């Protein structure tokens, strides 16, 4: 099950913890992968680790021209794109009263605008192929909200609504569009927290631990698979039970 | 010119799976041939590929009948 041999996947934000885990997991199932990110050396290292069937396609997702060019670059490298994982995301956390319009817009530009444009960019060939998978990485805060993350949470809720709308448009063409909403996942950010802070975080999670990139990647592999053909417009919450929605 | 007409009709017949006789020049993709809005987008994509042209979105929206497609391609295909 979940064999992705012959499928070509573009993963954005693959230089990050969750993104690299997703790329590795898709690759392990047999997919060819295009690794997008902004940190070229990290992408090169990941591509070297994966060996065959891995390409590096860096782009600045805050630049609209670069966003439009990315699906083309990935298609040139792999001959097409069958699976798109919109994982790239940034934060500009600040209490709303102190949040600058630029902080709001920068997060929207990368997290939501780019995800839409990339989805649009790959849909044409997916429609022709009558097969495609788009998986948008949302977040638990898109459902629960989070103080200091009005911008980030709004983009993540936006990704979920966008997924549902796109899913309805292309469902009868063999294309599914779903979201995965991770909870607290171990990252460079959480590594920087003190042990007390980490324990406090884990205490909010019934499973008793932070998530890993692999926890999230497994959900992405499922939604990207042929077996998940009848699952579309859904949000799969991967959060150790922290929020059951 | 009739070549363009034949090629357009062939694409419409194949894509929408309709009988040849129904695909008259006056036929509307949506009203007469049972296309949905996504079908019309796909038809435009197929025309672009067949004739090696790019049909901008505002022009694509106006292509609603077989004749609209033939006329646009006659005017814009090299």
Automatic annotation (TrEMBL), chain A:
<feature type="binding site">
    <location>
        <position position="38"/>
    </location>
    <ligand>
        <name>NADP(+)</name>
    </ligand>
</feature>
<dbReference type="InterPro" id="IPR011284">
    <property type="entry name" value="3oxo_ACP_reduc"/>
</dbReference>
<feature type="binding site">
    <location>
        <begin position="152"/>
        <end position="156"/>
    </location>
    <ligand>
        <name>NADP(+)</name>
    </ligand>
</feature>
<dbReference type="InterPro" id="IPR057326">
    <property type="entry name" value="KR_dom"/>
</dbReference>
<keyword id="KW-0276">Fatty acid metabolism</keyword>
<protein>
    <recommendedName>
        <fullName>3-oxoacyl-[acyl-carrier-protein] reductase</fullName>
        <ecNumber>1.1.1.100</ecNumber>
    </recommendedName>
</protein>
<comment type="similarity">
    <text>Belongs to the short-chain dehydrogenases/reductases (SDR) family.</text>
</comment>
<dbReference type="Pfam" id="PF13561">
    <property type="entry name" value="adh_short_C2"/>
</dbReference>
<dbReference type="GO" id="GO:0004316">
    <property type="term" value="F:3-oxoacyl-[acyl-carrier-protein] reductase (NADPH) activity"/>
</dbReference>
<dbReference type="GO" id="GO:0006633">
    <property type="term" value="P:fatty acid biosynthetic process"/>
</dbReference>
<feature type="domain" description="Ketoreductase">
    <location>
        <begin position="7"/>
        <end position="188"/>
    </location>
</feature>
<keyword id="KW-0560">Oxidoreductase</keyword>
<dbReference type="InterPro" id="IPR002347">
    <property type="entry name" value="SDR_fam"/>
</dbReference>
<keyword id="KW-0444">Lipid biosynthesis</keyword>
<feature type="binding site">
    <location>
        <position position="87"/>
    </location>
    <ligand>
        <name>NADP(+)</name>
    </ligand>
</feature>
<keyword id="KW-0443">Lipid metabolism</keyword>
<comment type="function">
    <text>Catalyzes the NADPH-dependent reduction of beta-ketoacyl-ACP substrates to beta-hydroxyacyl-ACP products, the first reductive step in the elongation cycle of fatty acid biosynthesis.</text>
</comment>
<feature type="active site" description="Proton acceptor">
    <location>
        <position position="152"/>
    </location>
</feature>
<keyword id="KW-0275">Fatty acid biosynthesis</keyword>
<dbReference type="InterPro" id="IPR050259">
    <property type="entry name" value="SDR"/>
</dbReference>
<dbReference type="GO" id="GO:0051287">
    <property type="term" value="F:NAD binding"/>
</dbReference>
<comment type="pathway">
    <text>Lipid metabolism; fatty acid biosynthesis.</text>
</comment>
UniProtKB/TrEMBL annotation, chain B:
<dbReference type="GO" id="GO:0000036">
    <property type="term" value="F:acyl carrier activity"/>
</dbReference>
<keyword id="KW-0596">Phosphopantetheine</keyword>
<comment type="function">
    <text>Carrier of the growing fatty acid chain in fatty acid biosynthesis.</text>
</comment>
<dbReference type="GO" id="GO:0005829">
    <property type="term" value="C:cytosol"/>
</dbReference>
<dbReference type="InterPro" id="IPR009081">
    <property type="entry name" value="PP-bd_ACP"/>
</dbReference>
<keyword id="KW-0444">Lipid biosynthesis</keyword>
<feature type="domain" description="Carrier">
    <location>
        <begin position="2"/>
        <end position="77"/>
    </location>
</feature>
<keyword id="KW-0597">Phosphoprotein</keyword>
<comment type="pathway">
    <text>Glycolipid biosynthesis; KDO(2)-lipid A biosynthesis.</text>
</comment>
<dbReference type="GO" id="GO:0009245">
    <property type="term" value="P:lipid A biosynthetic process"/>
</dbReference>
<dbReference type="GO" id="GO:0036104">
    <property type="term" value="P:Kdo2-lipid A biosynthetic process"/>
</dbReference>
<dbReference type="GO" id="GO:0000035">
    <property type="term" value="F:acyl binding"/>
</dbReference>
<comment type="pathway">
    <text>Lipid metabolism; fatty acid biosynthesis.</text>
</comment>
<feature type="modified residue" description="O-(pantetheine 4'-phosphoryl)serine">
    <location>
        <position position="37"/>
    </location>
</feature>
<dbReference type="InterPro" id="IPR003231">
    <property type="entry name" value="ACP"/>
</dbReference>
<dbReference type="GO" id="GO:0016020">
    <property type="term" value="C:membrane"/>
</dbReference>
<keyword id="KW-0276">Fatty acid metabolism</keyword>
<dbReference type="InterPro" id="IPR036736">
    <property type="entry name" value="ACP-like_sf"/>
</dbReference>
<dbReference type="InterPro" id="IPR006162">
    <property type="entry name" value="Ppantetheine_attach_site"/>
</dbReference>
<protein>
    <recommendedName>
        <fullName>Acyl carrier protein</fullName>
    </recommendedName>
</protein>
<comment type="similarity">
    <text>Belongs to the acyl carrier protein (ACP) family.</text>
</comment>
<keyword id="KW-0275">Fatty acid biosynthesis</keyword>
């Amino acid at each position: 099950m979940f064999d992705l041999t012959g499928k070509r996947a573009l993963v954005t934000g693959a230089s990050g913890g969750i993104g690299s885990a997703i790329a590795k997991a898709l690759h392990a199932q047999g997919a060819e992968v295009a690794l997008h990110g902004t940190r070229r050396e990290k992408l090169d290292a990941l591509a070297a680790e994966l060996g065959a069937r891995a390409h590096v396609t860096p782009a600045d997702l805050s630049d609209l021209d670069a966003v439009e060019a990315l699906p083309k670059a990935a298609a040139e490298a792999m001959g097409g794109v069958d699976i798109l994982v919109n994982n790239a995301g940034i934060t500009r956390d600040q209490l709303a009263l102190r949040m600058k319009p630029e902080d709001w817009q920068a997060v929207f530009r990368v997290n939501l605008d780019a995800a839409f444009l990339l989805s649009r960019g790959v849909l044409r060939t997916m429609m022709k192929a009558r097969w495609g998978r788009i998986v948008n990485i949302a977040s638990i805060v898109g459902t629960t909200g989070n103080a200091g993350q009005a911008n980030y949470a709004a983009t993540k809720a936006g990704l979920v609504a966008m997924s549902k709308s796109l899913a309805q448009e292309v469902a009868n063409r063999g294309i599914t569009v779903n979201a995965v909403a991770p909870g607290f996942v171990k990252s460079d950010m959480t590594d920087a927290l003190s042990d007390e802070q980490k324990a406090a975080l884990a205490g909010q999670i019934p499973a008793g631990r932070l998530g890993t990139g692999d926890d999230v990647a497994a959900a992405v592999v499922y939604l990207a698979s042929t077996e998940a053909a009848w699952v579309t417009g859904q949000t799969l919450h991967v959060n150790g039970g922290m929020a059951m929605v | 010119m009739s070549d363009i007409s034949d090629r357009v009709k062939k694409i419409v017949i194949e894509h929408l799976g309709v009988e040849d006789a129904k695909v008259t020049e006056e036929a509307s993709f949506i009203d007469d041939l049972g296309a949905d809005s996504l079908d019309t987008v796909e038809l435009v994509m197929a025309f672009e590929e067949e004739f090696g042209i790019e049909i901008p979105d505002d022009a694509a929206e106006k292509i609603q009948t077989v004749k609209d497609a033939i006329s646009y391609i006659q005017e814009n295909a090299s």
